[in-house]
Design brief:
heterodimer; A: DNA polymerase, domain 1; Aldehyde Oxidoreductase, domain 3; 7-stranded mixed β-sheet; 34 strands; B: Uridine Diphospho-n-acetylenolpyruvylglucosamine Reductase, domain 3; Enolase-like, domain 1; globular; binds flavin-adenine dinucleotide; binds FE2/S2 (inorganic) cluster
């Protein structure tokens, strides 16, 4: 039908079918700011438009319904302030506030948030925090934890009212903020911080040596924020190509079966279908989907399509058609006859004799201890010291079995890929991935193409959190492009994200700890039984990290500190659950649930202060990482000293800011007057993560100067919304003495940017950052040499080593200077011409762990078991903080993901392996209007192994929240849970015990 | 898949479209559900031009038009009332801006907080063309049997002047309830108590004057209410706890009045 839609004040005539949603039509017309979360129930809200001024979901509205109404998208708001000779009003106040406040991480939810905020401010110029949160309640953001977006709106509202707001570009608060003295004097408790204000800077204990830096350490705006705030077509799906087909996959309805017969003839005959591929149509190449370095540290057990299905959601056939509707119709026409096989879902049954074998294919390739005959994807046996002797020397032995669930990354942008042949017959894969270089290397054999004929482009990514450290769907589109010779787009629906994606590994963890009565840990032993699901992607390495990080924190005290006794054994087994994989934290949150719950039990049982007990046994600076001589992600281990540990200061400052001493053990505070069914409690957990994989992770950077003294920084590192492009740009700018705006950052494209392993293992700032610094130093050296010569020509005698790069100039100590633009033009055009440029790469011999103290406050309804988390505070030692706003955004957002792990997120299956959760309604992630108060603070340490002293920040916030909440529930009401999340029924049952 | 879209200007035109034997023709409220039913082939009749979005009180009867949005109702009810809290849990703001009262009641299942509260309010659906009034409980029972009392819901009605209470338990403050309870008390002293959080429709626990043993009746009602989300044992216990809280809240309100 013909429609006239009033979009952003313009009458647009368009064709639409009766079934088309407003979202489909707007995106077809090029309004790519209207994003798509793949939902069926309108749960993500990123497709929002203003409909007669009110925010609504465009995916839940027929285009026909919109005729005669006004539709507004973010394309109507603001534009880049500088458009050459054409002057503009620039970005809107809201857009600017979002950019300045760090409210944009991946930016996928940003257009929707901006529209919702705009509608609110049009109604009420003085909104309260609660009103802002309510306005955001329909929009799921998995990155920010909502705090900075809320602050941005309050800030914009104040500016629009003409009020003065505090500048954000101020140096991180240090002397101005009152810190608790480090000597153990009685801490003076600050008042409980009340809600949010418009100040987005976290509290940072800065190091004196960082004084004088002009870019590193500053709250620089994200380099990609301006385009994201405008909803520009920056993401994978924001691309229209002539003749592009839509791909769909037929997923298995059963958990375990052989495909006896498959007949796609009816589907192929359907008009509009370009190709249907079954296992009979494509090469049978065994591989692993885990996006890791070569050789993959895990079994090869996957085929693009197979004649066997191993979980509900496994692949059966691929379809490419002219439209999504036709492709879906074609899926229904594929006839499949399944021969049912026994279903194995209980990890405890997997290795028992007689258990059904999940991988019986002859092509299966083992890695290390994997044994498909026993359904064993990986095994780990690590003994450090003499564990039995340690137990014999203990006064008490504590043993318990913990259980952690399968949970979803739930990035709001689904997996999405576009493939096409370019004019040179090279296959281009434009994909939302964390690992573009691994995609290229790993898919080459699967597609029977040499690496050199594949180009992988990573545009902006709408969140990944590990879910996109998987070569998950690129092969589907690529096979279909090969089959049809046409461009193909494949985008997961939210349901596919649940049924056919990856997740955090569920585990059963047995812990045994030997302790002396004075609280000295004498030995610690962990047995993990991990359910990797149907495929062994990340099987070994995720579970390895469970031990490597969570079991390394508490080494013991006294003689045990010098020679800790630690055992970590794990079996990672196949079942007919959907495969698990990488998820931010990478095995470590699982470990800390067990370790930190156990520490709490021990401290309480021995009547010890829970924090003092932990610190007594925690690892200290200068000590050997106990696992470094035993295990390294399936590779050769090498000893590693931990140089910086800010744990004690994290505890002390975190405690003070949280008001721990006032609350812990305070019976009066625990009760709520007039509400006898409510109890308050506080809990703590300490954590240690890692930074990169030593001797393995490598990142490259290439840097060149332009005529005006600006620089192109090309990096293989993969910014998936975290802000790594910005942070790496800041490092280059600091070395080169220019503002960040002079660094044009581009990531990543396998044709143009140097190699990088990708965004995982918290390695980017540390590894890729060091590569950037190396390249920048080489460029700086060339600049100094040339500048000295140029100054010499002007009669200033100066050696290159004396030249200082600052304020876009190369200056002699006397003050005489040449601008970098002059240096660039001299080099490019005038004299002894050269391109000042450098390429550098970096791999690290160390993986310095960040540390953190996590605090939680809860309110428990002891009649219903409902737990309401009221406050989360995390004090983090991540080394030197390169960008305080981005770093605190990582902590806030990470804590909120971990909060889901604590109270509501889990993926549950029935006895046939059918999932309970297939959308973001049943799988509840936290909304803006139900958030606890969040606070992130940093204790800087100066990590000597990095040029700027940085360590990782991104994963550690996932570690401590669940156990801290568990410990707080114990504190509140005595309910002790060994299983997370703490759902009302679980807490109620624990209370009944 | 939706194969035809109609936007009639008159009720007569709407009814005649809906009365067609072929193709299957359905009323379109907000569209928040219908747009997602890709497997269903149907034509839709958009009700937006029919003036069915009012909310009026006449005497002690309140009438809400079928296409009144959930937000429209919330604006009137106030967000801190029992009805407002149920609406808040029912749908997020973007949904509330589009989703219609009738559309919700057509598709609501037992976990719907709004259906639970509206059933406690003894809300009735007015079906056209006959103008037949059908209570929500009755509607859910008919729906179970695949029957419809008419072509279209024109409005919902309920009586004014009742006191309402609503309680819920969920994993987080804004999650869908695992169990919820609502109770209404009329000036006559008559009480109507309903449980939600389970099954295909909320369940009426009690409807009468003496208010005797409602808590016990609630527990009994959910004695078998186990599913993938909660055990029957837990739901039964919560039915009692939440119903007790609802009744206490009603009593408190009475005390204040
Ligand atoms: C987050 C979320 C969770 C949800 N959870 C559930 C759930 O658990 N259970 C559930 O059942 N639904 C659920 N829904 C769907 C929800 O019930 C719908 O959103 C609701 O029906 C929307 O109303 P609408 O006006 O948009 O309906 P529409 O999509 O327009 O219509 C819904 C149905 O009602 C009919 N209808 C509409 N108006 C009338 C009328 N006046 N007279 C007669 N028939 C009419 C339509 O023909 C259609 O069959 C959920 C939705 C969301 C977004
Ligand atoms: S709500 Fe529309 S895409 Fe998620
Ligand atoms: S910034 Fe909100 S989803 Fe990524």
């Amino acid at each position: 039908m013909n429609l006239i839609l009033n979009i952003n004040g313009n009458a647009m005539v368009c064709e639409a079918s009766a079934a088309e949603t407003l979202m489909d039509v707007l995106r077809r017309l090029g309004y790519f700011s209207v994003k798509h979360g793949g939902c069926k129930k309108g749960e993500c809200g990123v497709c929002a438009v203003l409909f007669d001024g009110k925010p609504v979901n465009a995916c839940q509205l027929l285009a026909g319904q919109a005729e005669g109404h006004s539709i507004q998208t973010i394309e109507a708001s603001g534009q880049h302030p500088e458009q050459g000779w054409r002057k503009t009003d620039g970005l809107s106040v809201l857009q600017q506030a979002f950019i300045e406040s760090g409210a944009i991480q991946c930016g996928y939810c940003t257009p929707a948030m901006l529209l919702a905020a705009q509608a609110l401010l049009e109604k009420d110029s003085h909104p309260s925090e609660a009103q802002v949160r309510e306005a955001f309640a329909s929009i799921l953001c998995r990155c920010t934890g909502y705090l900075k977006p809320v602050q941005a709106v309050l800030r914009a509202a104040a500016i629009l009212r003409g009020e003065a707001v505090e500048p954000l570009q101020a140096a991180p608060a240090q002397g101005s903020v009152e810190w608790t003295p480090l000597t153990p004097a009685a801490p003076e408790l600050p008042e409980t911080p009340g809600g949010v204000d418009t100040q987005v800077m976290p509290k940072i204990w800065t190091l004196p040596k960082t004084d004088g830096r002009t870019v590193v350490g500053k709250p620089e705006r994200k380099v990609d924020a301006v385009k994201l705030a405008q909803g520009k077509p920056a993401f994978t799906a924001d691309l229209d190509m002539r003749g592009m087909l839509v791909a769909k996959v037929l997923h298995s309805p059963v958990a375990h079966a052989r495909i006896k017969r498959i007949d796609a003839s009816a589907a192929r005959a359907l008009p509009g279908v370009a190709a249907v591929l079954t296992w009979q149509d494509i090469p049978r190449v065994v591989y692993s989907t885990a996006g890791q370095s070569d050789p993959i540290p895990g079994p090869l057990d996957t085929f693009s399509l197979d004649n066997k299905v191993r979980f509900v959601g496994d692949r059966v056939a691929f379809v490419a058609a002219e439209s999504a509707e036709i492709a879906e119709q074609a899926l229904r026409l594929i006839e499949v006859e399944y021969e049912a096989l026994p279903v194995l879902l209980d990890s405890r049954e997997a290795m028992k004799p007689g258990a059904v074998r999940i991988h019986d294919e002859p092509e299966y390739v083992n890695f290390a201890g994997s044994d498909a005959g026993r359904n064993l994807a990986a095994d780990i046996r690590i003994d450090i010291g003499d564990v039995e002797k340690g137990f014999a020397e203990a006064d008490r032995i504590y043993e318990a079995e913990y259980e952690v669930p399968k949970v979803q990354q739930a990035h709001i942008e689904p997996h999405v890929v576009v493939t096409y042949w370019d004019e040179d017959d090279r296959l281009v894969i434009r994909t939302s991935t964390q690992v573009p270089f691994h995609v290229r290397r790993m898919l080459a054999p699967v597609l029977e193409l040499p690496v050199k004929r594949i180009r992988v482009i990573k545009p902006r990514i709408g969140g990944g959190f590990g879910g996109k450290q998987e070569v998950l769907i690129e092969d589907v589109a690529a096979h279909l492009t090969i089959a049809t010779r046409r461009p193909v787009r494949y985008e997961y629906t939210r349901e596919e994200e649940f049924t056919a994606s990856r997740s955090r590994h569920p585990m059963r963890i047995r812990l045994k700890t030997g302790v002396k009565l004075d609280g000295t840990i004498t030995a610690n032993e962990m047995h993990c039984l991990t359910d990797t699901g149907a495929y062994g992607c990340h099987a070994l390495t995720v579970t390895g990290n469970t031990g490597h990080k969570a079991m390394a924190l508490y080494v013991g005290d006294g003689p045990y500190r010098k020679s800790p006794n630690i055992r970590f054994y794990a079996d990672v087994v196949y079942t007919n659950h959907p495969p698990a994989g990488a998820y931010r934290g990478y095995g470590v949150p699982q470990g800390y649930w067990a370790v930190e719950r156990q520490m709490e039990h021990i401290a309480r049982d021995l009547n010890l202060d829970p924090i003092a007990f932990r610190l007594k046994n925690a690892i200290r600076p200068g000590e050997l990482h106990p696992f470094s001589t035993a295990w390294s992600e399936g590779r050769e281990p090498r000893p590693e000293i931990i140089h910086t540990v800010g744990l004690e200061q994290c505890v002390q400052q975190g405690k003070a800011a949280f008001g721990w001493d006032e609350r812990y053990g305070n019976a009066e505070w625990r009760t709520v007057p007039g509400k006898p069914h409510l109890r308050r409690g506080v809990g703590v957990a300490l954590a240690m993560q890692g930074t990169a994989i030593p001797y393995l992770d490598m990142g490259g950077a290439s840097l060149k100067i332009n005529d005006d003294g600006s620089f192109n920084l090309l990096i293989g590192a993969t910014d998936l919304g975290t802000g790594s492009d910005t942070v790496l740009g800041q490092m280059a700018a600091e070395v080169l003495g220019v503002p960040l705006e002079d660094i044009i950052v581009y990531s990543s494209d396998t044709d143009f940017t140097p190699f990088d392993v990708g965004a995982y293992a918290s390695s980017t700032t540390y590894i890729s950052g060091a590569a950037v610094v190396k390249a920048a130093e080489q460029v700086a050296e060339r600049i100094r040499i040339r500048a000295a010569a140029m100054l010499g020509e002007r009669g200033v005698k100066v050696s290159p080593e004396e030249i200082i790069l600052a304020d876009r100039k190369a200056a002699a100590p006397s003050g005489e200077a040449v601008t970098l633009g002059e240096v660039a033009r001299n080099a490019l055009h005038h004299n002894d011409q050269e391109q000042i440029m450098a390429v550098a790469s970096y791999k690290s011999p160390s993986a310095p762990p960040p540390f953190a103290a996590q605090f939680a406050e809860v309110l428990v309804d002891v009649e219903t078991g409902q737990v309401t988390v009221e406050r989360l505070l995390m004090a983090v030692d991540s080394g030197v903080i390169v960008n305080p706003v981005l770093a605190s955004g990582q902590i806030e957002g990470g804590m909120v993901q971990a909060l889901g792990y604590a109270v509501c997120e889990e993926m549950v299956y029935d006895e046939a392996g059918q999932p309970r959760e297939v959308d973001l309604v049943d799988y509840h992630i936290f909304r803006a209007d139900e958030m606890p108060e969040l606070q992130a603070m940093f204790i800087e340490t100066d990590e000597p192994t990095h040029p700027f002293g940085v360590k990782a920040v991104a994963e550690i916030p996932l570690d401590g929240v669940a156990p801290a909440v568990g410990n707080a529930v114990l504190d509140a009401c005595g309910a002790s849970l060994l299983v997370n999340p703490l759902t009302p029924e679980r807490v109620w049952r624990a209370l009944k015990k | 898949m939706i194969i035809e879209y109609h936007r009639p200007e008159t009720m007569a035109a709407a009814l005649s479209l809906l009365a067609r034997p072929q193709p299957l023709t359905l009323p379109l409220g907000g569209g928040t559900t219908l747009t997602q039913m890709h497997d269903l082939t149907c034509a839709v009749v958009d009700l937006q031009r029919l003036g069915l979005d009012g909310l009026n009180g006449e005497g002690d009867v309140i009438t809400a038009g079928a296409v009144l949005t959930l937000q429209g109702l919330m604006d009137q009810a106030g967000s801190d009332t029992a009805l407002g809290r149920a609406l808040d849990l029912e749908a997020s703001p973007h949904q509330r801006n589009r989703s219609t009262l009738a559309g919700r009641m057509m598709t609501a299942d037992g976990r719907s907080p709004l259906a639970t509260v509206m059933m406690a309010m003894d809300a009735r659906l007015v079906w056209l063309p006959e103008g037949q009034e059908v209570g929500l409980a009755e509607w859910f029972a008919m729906r179970e049997g695949g029957r419809k009392p008419g072509l279209l819901v024109a409005s919902l009605t309920w009586s004014a002047g009742m006191e309402l209470a609503f309680e819920a338990v969920a994993r987080t403050p804004k999650d869908r309830p695992i169990v919820c309870a609502a109770a209404a008390r009329w000036p006559s002293g008559s009480i109507r108590a309903v449980l939600g959080g389970f099954g295909n429709a909320p369940m009426v626990v009690y409807d009468g004057l003496d208010g005797h043993d409602i808590v016990k009746a609630a527990r009994k009602k959910y004695a078998q209410a186990g599913d993938a989300w909660a055990s029957a044992e837990y739901r039964q216990e919560m039915a009692g706890v939440l119903m007790k809280r609802c009744l206490a809240a009603l009593e408190k309100k009475e005390g204040q009045a």
